[in-house]
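Give me the fold.
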Amino acid sequence: MNRKGFLLLAIGALLSLHTPAQAHQPVALLNSDTTAAKGPLLVDGTISFAVTAAFTKAGQKKAFRAGFKSGDNVDVQLLIKDKSPENRLKNSQIPSLTITSPSGKRTTLKITERTNFLETYTSTNYFYLSRYSAPAEAGIYNFMVTAKAKAAVTIGVGVKEIPGEVIRGAAPTPTPTPTASATPAGYTMDQVKANNSATKCWSVIDSKVYDLTTWIGSHPGGAGAITSLCGTDGTSAFKGQHGGSGQPNSRLAGYLLGPLAK
């Protein structure tokens, strides 16, 4: 191999070491997620999720949960987008994040940095504000986000770039013997049709109901790719747009509301 070819290979290898990781799977906290018990459960907290919490005024709270096993690591980052008004806020105005372990140990993340980070999937610039990493206790961790002003934050949880499961409502409890139980009624098609706008966009995909509202402004294919699904059974259209691509399907899982009522 000549000298020029060797240099090109060396440069390529160096660049590959600095290629940003894939985007975390998005999970948007709802206004009703005011306590950890009401908020979504990230079944495996070692899988990478990007949990967003938007607030209109100080004092508002949003929360979620994440599950860990003994031997896992709890990896959490607090970020804001590099855009107004968030990038103009003082540290004292940025929402706080408190993590409570299964044993009751509480940790409130301190803002220690403003390090720029480019999320390549949506070409969005963020600032890292705080990072937390510690050995996990086995069980469910609670995460509480409290607003200090009008702002939005993103909480990065986990590191594994694979699709993860998100559950809303009570976590399923295993039983020693099979028992008959009622099937959840789910959401009706009339409810889906009623949420047919850019400000409230629900869609049915593969007999499951999704709230796609927060995906409208960040979809790489433009807002129309999502608004065309609002209020409809969007199964065929979604699969026609994305096929079996892993990344869009991973993002879709973060918007799940529940099953479509039969």
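The longest helix spans residues 3-17.
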